[in-house]
Amino acid sequence: MSTARASRWFVAAGALFFLALQLAMAAGASRRTVVTLGLYGFVLHVVFGKAYALVPSYFERSLAWPSAPAVQWPLSVAGTAALALAPVGPAWLDPAGTALWAGGVAVFLGTLGWTIRYNPTGAATGTGDANAHRRPVDRRANAVVPLALGYLALGTVAALAGAFEVQPLGAGPLAVQQRSHLLAAGTAALLVFGVGFRLFPRFLVAEPPRRLVGVVLLTGAVGPALLGFGLFAPAVLLVGGVVEAVAVVGFAVSYLVLFVRSDRRRVGFYAVALAAVAGVCGVGLGLAMAVTARDPALVRAHYRLMLVGFLGLTVVGAAYQFYPPAVGTWPFASDRTAVASIALLGGGLGLQVLGALLGLGIASTAGAMLGVTGAALFVYLLFAAFDRRRGR
């Protein structure tokens, strides 16, 4: 199986988990199930697939073990499904799902680690002479990738410790929320920053504010550790919230500057712009919780803005760029349908957030229905594009 084809398998699984996420929110599933489907299922599956395809070339290397994606895929998919069902299933689902998930992560980390072992900081960027002016940013962006992989390893080890009730090095196990912050902010968001500063300037054919790039990458690297380990220490949590907010707001500003500077207006770019706005709103609510208290409504609105909005819509936008809707072979596979999916996802998220903050159940229900429809269109368009590329 080619790397490109394997990448599509991960993206396809992620898209189906995204639809499951929206259905779970509409059905009122537990927060743990929602986060599992959104983070482990959607965001990280797409991260795995695109990392196999992009990271080796970004580090001027070839993938060490081309068969690794085919080995990891069933482990990650089965592990995520088990973890999502664990809150309502038998007790063995949690350790079984965690073990499967950890096995997939071990394959992923081992493969990428061995691939970049002689270029761990990404000093060799694989950037061609035509883009020589981008090399300083590319080197900085590469440097955070190993750290993001480190957060993935740490979050996975913590999940194993929690599932099997062990205490590594005598320390108590990290809470589920702490592990989620390590994986969401430390792995997913940090890779959005690092890979994003390589991808989006090329997609948009524009230059980001170079000084802001360093600020985003530095704060994006430090913030997750402060959030993960200081989640239940108010002072540390506040510092971590401020640091992570600088990273997210800085990335949002950088992307919006790119968007304004660019003459290109492809459909996926609008989803990422909407994600940037959601991220700013999400970190704002996070800071409000750090200063005041963890009101359930604020918590719900915060994690949905960050998971479904910032991370989710960024992935949707990037997916539409990699797999343009208009190339699909099925009826109604077009940019217009993609715009409708983005509008439904963004509008649905907005209504759910307002419903949570204002206690309006009807707004939350309507938003959930819009989200399900938008996710279904996203899955349809992706699979239509995959059908065009079948056999490659």
Describe this structure in words.
By secondary structure, the chain is mostly helical. It has a domain of 128 residues. It contains 13 helices and no strands. The radius of gyration is 20 Å and the shape is globular. The mean pLDDT is 92.
Q: Count up the helices.
A: 13
Structural class call reads: mainly alpha
Number of DSSP-assigned strands: 0
| Low-pLDDT residue spans | none
CA radius of gyration: 20 Å
The main sheet comes to:
none
- Give the overall silhouette: globular
Helix content: over 70%
What is the percentage of strand-forming residues? under 5%
| End-to-end CA span | 9 Å
Summarize the helix and strand pattern as letters.
Answer: HHHHHHHHHHHHH
| Average predicted confidence as pLDDT | 92
Short characterization:
By secondary structure, this protein is an all-alpha fold. Helix content is 77%, strand content 0%.
Q: What keyword list fits this structure?
A:
mainly alpha; single chain; globular; 392 residues
